[in-house]
Amino acid sequence: MPSRRMPPKPILEEHDDDDDDLGFRPSRRRYYAPHRGGMVLTFGILGLVGPWLCTPLCLFCIAAWVMGHSDLKEMKAGRMDPEGEGQTRVGWILGIVGTALIVLGLVTCMFWFLIVRMR
Description:
Layout: E1 9-13, E2 28-32, H1 37-53, H2 59-77, H3 85-118
Helix pairs in contact: 1-2, 1-3, 2-3
């Protein structure tokens, strides 16, 4: 079954030109790629809750971090719909925090096993 993607959302831009008598030019349409803010936010939450529920969910932290970073770059470049910037930024931050907690937990477990082993 082929996946159905939504067409890009048209965004109208206004231009200020002093050359026009009325002070504006007709708007031109600009098409943005759809944002994935909800998905990045969901991945960030799942990754943050993952260590307490199930270990494989921890991988969502890394996905939220990578996807959020690339989407924020696309929004800054003007190629992605900036409406989802808030959700994307929160999901990106949750991905970073979740990854840091996972790394901290792994280091703590390794350190604990070394101490127990040394006794």
